[in-house]
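Reader question, answered in our methods column.
A reader sent in the components of a multi-part assembly and asked whether the whole thing could be modeled at once rather than chain by chain. We filled in our standard form and ran it. Here is what they sent:
COMPLEX SIZE: two components
ENTRIES:
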Amino acid sequence: MLGQQLANGLILGATYALFALGFTLMFGVIRVINLVYGFYFTAGAFIALYLTRNLGWPMAVAFPAAAIASGVMAIGIDGLLLTRLRRVGAPELASLMVTLGAVLALYATATALLGPDIKRFPASVIGAEAMEFAAIRITQAQVLILLATIVLVGGLLALMHGTRLGLALRAMAENPDAAGLMGIDTIRLAALVSFISGALAGAGGVLIGLNFNAIQPYMGEAMMLRGFVVIIVGGLGDIRGALIAGLLLGIVEVLTAGYIASGLKEAVAFAILVAVLWSRPAGLFGRAVTRRA
Amino acid sequence: MPPWLDDFFWTYQNLVYALGVNGLLALSIYVVLAVGQLSLGQAAFMGLGAYSSAIMTLKFKLPFLLVLPASCIVPVAFALLIGGPTLRLSGVYLAIATIGLGEVLRAVYLNIDWFGGALGLSGIPERAGIGSIYGLLAAALAVLWIIGRSHIGRAMEAMRTDETAAEVMGINVPRYRLGALLASAVLAGLAGALSAHVSSFIGPNEYGFEPAVTILSFALLGGIGTPIAPVLGAWILTLLPELLRGLADFRLVFNGVIIVIAVLFLPNGILPFRLRRHGRP
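And here is the structure of the entire assembly that came back:
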């Protein structure tokens, strides 16, 4: 029983980590808390739903297509919202407020157009059969979640720390003005970060949609709450921190739901957030940053 | 009261109440924005005020004169819990820590029978009215106006413009931020108690993410140069859906677009005037 709970927690945690990854990358590189991020999650799930249900595409094709489409959508929306603020050098809070207003408008539009009811993938696209390892049941969707998380986290870490592009991104995170003076095209890189983070959110949306087989416009909002907890606990902008914090949160939530009460999951996540803010505000693995004028 | 006024009042009673309560909520977010912080917990604080006051009235049968001031206690306690650590950090931490609060509390209200679960609390006696709502709104406006014109208001404006410079000039930034957050929790708690005691019913879904964003849009539309500006913003945004009935489904879209436009193109709101100060009072 405990083994099954831990496995479920690990898989849930992997989706949290996957979701928080793009969120924290966005903050790490372009210093923006992008609240529209949750909407890309919803968008990814709905695009995959449309491709599989209405067009009959197989999931193996629809999944990457939905992620890419969400990424492209992110380039457009982020560009529209944030370019002007970046040009005038507006503070972090301004971008937070703009994306807050935008995400409210986007969710409300999506609900008005698509309806508030829960939609499901057709039975043929989700592999319903489960595998068993030592009395632990894992569905195909859950295996896909674990694999996707490993591949995407590994790929992102390799990109950030193993390529010249990653070096440019890290330079931009350090100091965008200096990076610009060194010949780095910061506008194009910001668009690239939007694309990567939007695609990660979209991928997360498809996987969560598959796992619970329930898709509705506000699904991204529920996820955002976890996203906040993960990026604060892991440290704002810290990719490895987000991975570990995401896994921890998933396990803690599943254990809370299993042994205490399922309605208290959200409260536990929030209590962790407040506890970390009190004790280690730079995140569990972070170091305090000195503020400069 | 002449009959036509009586008729008018009966038809628009809820709207008149909503204008007053939303005015208080607009002041509540104004206080935080005025020190350059962003709190998205206003709706959650309001919910805490509403639930705690309703429980005091329904379960403990306390008189309203006691319930109303006591309705601030729980929101203030939560503001201290969240504000304590975040106010020493950059502004985004307070925003993130408060943005989830409403959703978390909703889950708590839903799952604990004491709070009425999904049915909420009903049968709350109508103890508040025009007098208490608008009296408190006027009092809050007057107090904030006087504070705004004093050296405290100057300090708040300095923090909003350049935090580091304000700190260097000897302003105790964390203390002002905490004071502002507590004041905003008090205002939101009062608004919650008042609205609970005019509407007779409160439910778990009224204090989540969307009302929080709507409250923010009040202040962003009106501006934060003077305390009257956010109240005006609240009144416009409360009246508009009544005037444009067709907007009903798209009201939230409208609020969201207002925020985007206000931040991008109207950074000072529609009333961009600042309070005037002479010398050192």
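What stands out: The two ends of chain B are 43 Å apart (CA to CA). The mean pLDDT of chain B is 85.
Send us your own complexes using the same form.
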